[in-house]
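Protocol check, entry for the methods section draft. Step 1: assemble the input record (protein sequence plus ligand SMILES). Step 2: submit for complex structure prediction. Step 3: store the structure tokens unaltered in the notebook. Ligand used here: flavin mononucleotide. Step 1 record:
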Amino acid sequence: MSKLETERRFLLKNDDWRAQAAPPQQIEQGYLSVARECTIRARIIGEMAYLTIKGFITHATRSEFEYPIPKEDARAIIDSLCAFQVKKLRHHVRHEGFLFEIDEFFGANAPLIVAELELPAENTPFPRPDWLGEEITADSRFTNAWLSKHPYSTWAAAQRAAPLSGLCQRLGLTAPIFLAPMAGASTPELAAAVANAGGLGALGLGALCAADAQAAIVATRALTERPFQINFFCHTPETPDAERIRIWQNHIAPHFAHLGALPPQGLHAVYASFLEEPALLELALRQRPAAVSFHFGLPAPAQLAALKAAGILTMVSVTQPSEALLAEQAGIDVLIAQGIEAGGHRGMFDPARDPGYSTLALVRLLAGQTTLPIVAAGGIMNGADIRACLHAGAAAAQLGTAFLPCPESGASALWRNKLLDAPATQITDSISGRPARALLNHWHTRIDVPNRPPHAGYPYSYDLGKQLHTAALRHGEHGFAAYWAGAGAARARRMDAAQLMRTLCDELAQA
Ligand SMILES: Cc1cc2nc3c(=O)[nH]c(=O)nc-3n(C[C@H](O)[C@H](O)[C@H](O)COP(=O)(O)O)c2cc1C
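Step 3, stored output:
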């Protein structure tokens, strides 16, 4: 029989509760399945045993299906089928008519002690005894299911001491690390690896049609039950300017000629803006990812309202205070503060206006201007960088370039090798028609010559850029590639995503 269980959880300030505690019961439980939506566990408590399925509704409220089973069956299930187990003593302490269950973990989770209070509703008032410490209801690191896989004794001191930001708690993360959405590079495999390690996964869907975007989401869901964001481009659509296109083609024509190729006749918008593609909004509403983020501008008010009504967290890249103000006024939930160090496209709403703030300067500036959660992005390569962003006022850090060398990323072998061997980067708007930071190549040295004409507009220039790259590839020439990378590229490390997440968390804990 199912019931709804609403429970708030707390750390304890001291041992004063022990004086009022009844004799404890021993609990042993093993997990048959641990997913974000639902856990299945066998539990032995005293002489009784149960099989329990718990469904996630909010961090405080769960649906619970619990069935008594023979104790010897529970013993066999825990011993033979459950790789992840938790052992604890449960104390009961009554305080002003409220019953606190205090779990004193032992084994790998010692010396953690957590108090739980079952309430009729999340906002039911209750008395707070002097020994009750910080609330951890929304911090999924303290759930029994998470502790069974990541025992408390393995947490570094700083992990124990530093509570996760409200944003990370809301998303159910265990590390304040977001994978940056990277069109073409943040694959389902990379998104899932970051999410499975406790960060926020990401899919950059800006260059895909709705059907391909859906396939990427489905592929990610097959690899992880944990949260990820999906990301779209929200640029103001530009009408093609035939004269500008002609002038830009003339500027590029000698490079096609050098490769024995002809420049294309017309140029096309290689992908649509979220603003003009209703199928992308429908996809987001159907798939309901944890978060949707936007680059190059804001969605339309009706689009934003629909996403928020569906309970989806909304985020937008901002590069300057005026964009942050517009985003806040529009009702966006989270600001991604993208500094000048960032790899890939700069997120300015108006590409002509780049104030060039560094990531840390922008985070500090925005922290003084808004109460919205801020996620720092740009040049963040290790745990010390993440710590610096958190100190500056960020709720989490978003990393792109650091994940490019991972085998799970969509970066080609050449791109990865170049990133690790020749990591100089420069911003140019000549590749796509919008400023973007890439590994230094012919675009910067041969096409961005002084006094070159203006490009053909976004994303029309990108059409030409992609065609020049294809023509060059036929000659084994990679100098016209769009190898996007951030200014921290020289500090990128070759490891798989799970290993990188572990390394970042260890470094963060020690920073
Ligand atoms: C290869 C690559 C592709 C990117 N594509 C996107 C994208 O599709 N959408 C987006 O919002 N940001 C995109 N970005 C920017 C990132 O979201 C983020 O701002 C940046 O990676 C942070 O800087 P870092 O690369 O130095 O970590 C991209 C960045 C890179 C490196």
